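Case study 2.
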Amino acid sequence: MASLDFNWKELLLGGEDWGFLPEVVLRTAIMFTVVVVSLSLLGKRGVKQLSIFELVVIISLGSAAGDPMFYKDVGILPAMIVFIIIVGLYSLITYFIGKNKRFENLVEGKPVRLIKNGAFSIKNFSKEAIGEDEFFAELRLQGVSQLGQIEEAIEESSGHISIFYYPDEEVKYGLPIMIDSLDARQEEIKEHDYYACTFCGYTDKLEPTISVTCPKCNKNKWVKASNKKRIR
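Prediction:
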């Protein structure tokens, strides 16, 4: 049986030699310092607060910093020029963002109302790349169990959901959003009670009937509405 010729040096170092390791340390230290200085100049915010524009800038800086750290044939000077260009473009675009609201909305997006008065703003919600389950999970994390607790919910340009609640004494009947709460959706209304449209969250007190069409979205699937207060 032929012996297995395994090259540990190639596995560990690739095409470089052991003498390149101290240079990697120096390159990494330099590029790490450049990244820190660049982010300080950009006035960085927490990761959860990054806009799409700022996220692109951070990814670009990371890409420019990575290769010079461990590729011998990639010089540090070109990478630093890339950094200067990125920081310059960021500063220029930020300037125009401050001067022109339409340009700001184009680059960073704008807040979108997803819920108003305990029901979905259907046109706005359908435009956003957010699934119903994902959105409900976000609401539950903030102590919401049914939409009637919410006066307004707004998706900020950062992707965060801002929620403005009704006081407990003003909480309305609304669409329940707890796990499995929509499994009991039905077309036929069997008893006099409050029901919520499972598509748009419209809520009303309905009489027993074979089928009811929602006046807001023209769908006909309902679940019993909830008037539970918010969990704190």
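Strands lie at 112-116, 119-120, 150-155, 161-165, 193-197, 203-206, 222-224.
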